[in-house]
Design brief:
- By secondary structure, the chain is of the alpha/beta class.
- The protein folds into two domains: 170 residues, 3-Layer(aba) Sandwich (Rossmann fold), CATH 3.40.50; 158 residues, Rossmann fold (3-Layer(aba) Sandwich), CATH 3.40.50.
- 43% of the residues lie in helices and 18% in strands.
- The protein has 14 helices and twelve strands.
- It has a six-stranded parallel beta sheet with strand order 2-1-3-4-5-6, with helices on both faces. A six-stranded parallel beta sheet has the order 9-8-7-10-11-12, sandwiched between helices.
- α7 crosses α12.
- The relative contact order is 0.12.
Length: 334
């Protein structure tokens, strides 16, 4: 097959980028021809509020130019709604849209009710226009099945056998956050919880974004902010930690959680539907509550987390790329 893949990012530590990048690798390794439109090769404005709109415009023009040159594809596959105009403008036999969260809910959380309402109108129209829509969470599938012709659950995935054997440990005991620094990820809650942790607990923060959200934690002696790290290094920080922390308010399906579970590292997660759906083999705390987060971390460090072994088995059974890749091929072929 000849496939056009459209995604805001295909490299980096973000879950969407990791998911799309690995899917591209598997498709190419299987003999399929894959062209990519992403910010890595498309003009965009790397500023908050302009990143997605600028990528949406430039990716659409790139896809339109390919169409005018007579380039055609068996499948055009867009990841998240900002990539959909490009996929819809392409000359393709089938157009697939993958959503990594609920678009309108994310916009409502970040930008308020008016933005959420506008995003809702867009998502309904665009979901209806896709030949098939895949969702990384069952909750998103339930939401979009009201509009889409066909909504299919295909979760994020990892390669359990590819996890690093050696970790990076700055202090022991160490817990780590890996991801984007943004409000929907709950890093402000994490920053407040950092001040409530025992002094001997080292909190490592891996990622980039709005550093103002973690400002109150940066002056604490037990907090180490290492910024953006290549994916392999981020995995080694997880491997070297006693727990991974997911304080999210909104989620699609965090790949970092699957990676931690594959390595047998306990996950301390906010009690939101998307994370409950992912696995019950995590230590949950009340979302948005810094004290509950600090207490959950302390409890896992003091008592251990016996369900970590069950979590590792769950990843191998349900969230491995072997099964997820086969599901994508089924959707591509209709």
């Amino acid at each position: 097959m000849r496939i056009l893949m459209v995604s805001p990012r295909v490299t980096g530590i973000g879950g969407v980028a990791q998911h799309v990048g690995r899917l591209i690798e598997l498709l190419r390794g299987d003999g399929h021809e894959v062209d990519v439109i992403s910010v890595e090769g498309t003009p965009h404005v790397p500023l908050k509020g302009l990143y997605n709109p600028s990528f949406m415009a430039s990716s659409y023009l790139s896809a339109l130019a390919r169409r005018l040159r007579g380039e055609g594809y068996d499948v055009a596959h867009a990841h998240n709604f900002p990539a959909w105009p490009a996929a819809s403008a392409s000359r393709a036999g089938r157009r697939i849209l993958t959503v990594h969260g609920i678009f309108s809910s994310q916009h409502r959380e970040l930008h308020g009710a008016l933005a959420g309402s506008a995003a809702g109108r867009l998502e309904r129209a665009w979901a209806r226009s896709a030949d098939a829509l895949t969702c990384v969470s069952r909750r998103a599938c339930e939401h979009y099945s009201r509009y889409a012709r066909r909504a299919v659950w295909i979760p994020n995935a990892v390669d359990p056998e590819a996890m690093p054997r050696e970790g990076i440990t700055i202090g022991d005991p160490q817990v780590v956050y890996v991801g984007r620094l943004s409000r929907e990820k709950g890093v402000d809650v994490l920053a407040e919880a950092a001040g409530l942790l025992p002094r001997e607990v080292t909190l490592v923060i891996v990622g980039s974004g709005d550093e103002g959200l973690i400002g109150r934690a940066l002056g604490l002696p037990n907090v180490r902010y290492v910024g953006y790290q290549p994916h392999e290094a981020a995995l080694r920080y997880i491997r070297g930690s006693r727990a991974l922390v997911l304080p999210s308010r909104q989620e699609g399906m965090p790949t970092a959680a699957l990676e931690a579970m594959a390595m047998g590292v306990p996950v301390v997660a906010s009690d939101i539907p998307e994370l409950r759906e992912l696995s019950e083999n995590m230590a949950f705390f009340r979302a948005g509550d810094p004290r509950a987060l600090a207490e959950a971390i302390s409890r896992v460090l003091a008592e251990g987390f016996p369900r970590a072994a069950a979590a590792r088995e769950e990843v191998e059974r349900t969230y491995s790329w072997r099964s997820v890749y086969a599901r994508y091929l089924e959707v591509y072929r209709g």
